[in-house]
Structure formats: structure tokens, C-alpha cells
Amino acid sequence: MTGFINQMEPSFDEKEREALNAYMESGGWVTEFKKTREFEREIARYTGAKYCSVVSNGTVSLAVALMACGIGAGDEVLVPDYTMAATPDAVALTGAEPVFVDIERETLCMDYQEMLRAVTERTKAVMLVSINGRYPIQMERIAAFCREQGILLIEDAAQSLGSFYKGKHIGRYGEIGSFSFSAPKIITTGQGGALITDNEALFERIKLIRDFGRESGGSDHYLIKGWNFKFTDLQAVIGLEQMKKLPQRVKRKKELGRIYERELRGIPQIETIQTDLANTPPWFFDILCEQRDELMAYLKERGIGSRPFYPALHREPAFCREGDFPNAEYAAAHGLWLPSAVSLSDTTVAYICGVIKEFYR
Ligand SMILES: Cc1ncc(COP(=O)(O)O)c(C=O)c1O
Questions:
Q1: Is the pTM of this model over 0.90?
Q2: For ligand 1, is residue 161 a contact (CB within 6 Å)?
Q3: CATH assignment, 14-240
Q4: Per-residue pLDDT reduced to its tens digit, 97-133
Q5: What is the rounded CA–CA span in Å between residue 361 and residue 355?
Q6: Closest ligand 1 atom to the C-alpha of 129?
Q7: Is the CB of residue 180 below 6 angstroms from any atom belonging to ligand 1?
Q8: DSSP 3-state of 296
Q9: pLDDT (tens digit, 9 = 90+) per residue, 7-43?
């Protein structure tokens, strides 16, 4: 193999370059306008949601989702202990308290029984993170419990664009679903986030919050508290081109997932995470393995990038919470993301798996 194989990289080609040139030649103001609205319509169409609103990133979109639902100081929001820090960070941004919940070993998503244990009278929302495009096994029980108890279900679907569950796009089972378009995602606009919902009143609040709470652009009449969380048309121009490529990327991610699964199955030191590849394009190819750090070093020496899983967040200095989270700790200590770019060839994946087999031999 020639050249280092990055664990992840975005993909662009002449389509984005040409679209950007055409946009600049058209005299666009760069700031959000018609292209942004078009990008929103495209995400709504793809996911099947009634409404979509894009914002500056996938952390802000989570915070806006909570704010639109009226969550703030004094409220608790349940979040998995294993997720990107952005999930609890977004909760903290609203003034509410993130409460950590352990994960299922099988899917690495929030555990239903653990969730029940964490609920208090202050619990206002559950942040359901579909890690790598997967739902927890008990997803329907989580959703039913939230419905019965009047607890809001907000979906952090940052890693799940292109993933469906029972024919419906992930992110549409909760009150609001949130996506991220940061550089490693299946489509990217450099930075960016989106909120989808079928609830018109929430959509109207989201639009206000992302634009200073003002009645309309150019008006200085402030209806509710809001900020500037807006997008740009420059990003939307790239996003629209990326969306055209999404179906092919979804197909390719599933193919790559199948190759990894086939090649790594049978290595006793490796546990692959069961993923429904018919409906889920894995964002990152994730494994639990023995001698994780040694394997990472071995791969690196052979030109292969990989990345350890997120830490168990309750232990991080930024959060520092007491409690037992054995599954999140196990995942944090054994989890590894293998090269996951959509541009990987079959040969490259076979090479990567060959090096892994060689390590354990
Ligand atoms: C689960 C999850 N939530 C939220 C985010 C935050 O998104 P952003 O980087 O766009 O702020 C990410 C980013 O990777 C993520 O993986």
C-alpha cells in the first residue's frame, strides 16, 4: 500500500468546486439564503421529515432542540455515558444537567434498564444517541416509556444520516432529530448541523432560536430569547452536492461493512458489533478487541490509521460523576475505529484486515 490510510477523511470532487464557482459567479452573498432553504428541503425529503432547519453544527443543533422544548436550568436530561462529549455539552449549554446512563454491550447505545434507574422527577428529556447509525435493542421500550411519562425523546442522530429503522429514518422517532455535517460524517459541509421534526410549533421555535429570536430577518422585534446559530449558503452549496452522492455512499458503506465483518469474523480476540447492514451504513467501523493500544500502534507502523473509542464520559475531568458504568468503561478500554472513509477500496480493506490477522497471529 502506498500512502497513509486515514481513519477517516471527507470526499469532494469537481462537483463541489463547480457548484461553488457557479454560486460565487451568481453574486450570492455567502450568508444563508436560498441555497440554505434548498438544502433543508433536501434533508427533509431524504429523511421523510415534515420540517428541517440547519444550524452551525451538530452540538448547537442538540442545544437548540432542547431549548425549543423549553428545557433549561433545574431540568435533567439523560445521556449515554458512551457518546461524543457534544451530547452532554449541548445539555449543559441550556443550563440543564446531563445525567449519565450506561450502555448496552451489544449496540453501545443507552441501556433501557439503566435509563429507568436514572429517571427522577426532574428528568425532562432523554437524549437517544444512535451510535454509528444503530438504535438500542430496547429502543421501542425507551420510546414508549418516554411517551407514557411525558419525557421528551430527542434524538442525537449525528452519526446516522442514511440509517433506517423499520422503514423510517433514524431521527424521526423522537420529537426532534439532530444531525451533524462535520468533516468525518457521511456527508459534510465542513461544519453544520440539522434538526428535523414533524411538529410545526417546535419548528417555528427552532427557526426563532437560531436567528436571535427575531420576528423575521432584518426585523429588530425579538419574540423569544435567541442567538445566532445560522448556516451559510456557501456550506449549503457543498451540502447539496454531497446530498446527491448520499445514496451511493450509503450503499458503499454497507459494502465496506460487509467486507470488514466477513474478514474479521473468526478472530477470537475481536468482537464486531452487530449492525443491521441492510438498513445501516456504519459511520465508523467499530470493533471491541484485546490489546487495543498495541494493535493501534502496530497498524500505525504499517500505514494504517485507527482511533480509540470515546472515553466513559463520567470519568472525564469535564464531567466528573460518580457511578457504575461497566459497559461504557469496557467499550472505552477495548473499542477501536478502523479506517472508515467511503473512498476505501475493497483491496485496501482486505489489506487492513490482513494486517490485523497478522497482529493476532
Ligand atoms: C453523537 C454525536 N453527537 C454530536 C456531535 C457533534 O456534532 P458537531 O461536531 O457537528 O458539533 C457528534 C460529532 O461527531 C457526534 O458524533
A1: yes
A2: no
A3: 3.40.640.10
A4: 999 999 999 999 999 999 999 999 999 999 999 999 9
A5: 10
A6: 1
A7: yes
A8: helix
A9: 999 999 999 999 999 999 999 999 999 999 999 999 9
